[in-house]
């Protein structure tokens, strides 16, 4: 089983940038499809960006032109580069693995993933 640990969150002003990291242990990032989700207090966990093992991408509309996903196999790490941050981006950001290929629906549906990191807080003011 893979374990995930997120880092890189913090507080930034609107228009600023952050780069989140998700380091995997117990397996390699190429073994699994992986994704980033975010969650505001009292809200459902929301899909941000998903990356399949064949490098197929899926992202939420609010991501376009602002966020990019990438991975470093040597460091066994997944990244989310976030530029042009807005106050609406404030949330806890989670890394996910364990995609259920046999299930139906979007890869941005949190119910299709079953391995999660602890989350990292992003606050935009």
Order of H and E elements: EEEEEEEEEEE
Question: What integer value in Å does the Rg equal?
Answer: 13 Å
Structural class: mainly beta
- Tell me about the largest β-sheet: 7 strands, mixed
How would you sum up the global shape? globular
> How many runs of DSSP E, i.e. beta strands?
11
As residue ranges, the low-confidence spans are none
Distance between the termini: 37 Å
Description:
This protein starts with a strand and ends with a strand. The chain is built from no helices and eleven strands. The model has no long low-confidence stretch (mean pLDDT 93). The chain is globular, with a radius of gyration of 13 Å. The protein has strands at residues 3-7, 10-12, 18-25, 34-39, 46-51, 57-59, 67-72, 77-82, 91-99, 113-116, 120-124. A hairpin with a 6-residue loop joins strand 4 (34-39) and strand 5.
Describe the structure concisely.
The protein has 125 residues and is an all-beta fold. Helices cover 0% and strands 49% of the residues.
Layout of secondary structure:
Elements: E1 3-7, E2 10-12, E3 18-25, E4 34-39, E5 46-51, E6 57-59, E7 67-72, E8 77-82, E9 91-99, E10 113-116, E11 120-124
Parallel strand pairs: 2-11
Antiparallel strand pairs: 1-3, 3-8, 4-5, 4-9, 5-6, 7-8, 9-10, 9-11
Name the descriptors.
globular; seven-stranded mixed β-sheet; four-stranded antiparallel β-sheet; mainly beta; 125 residues; 11 strands
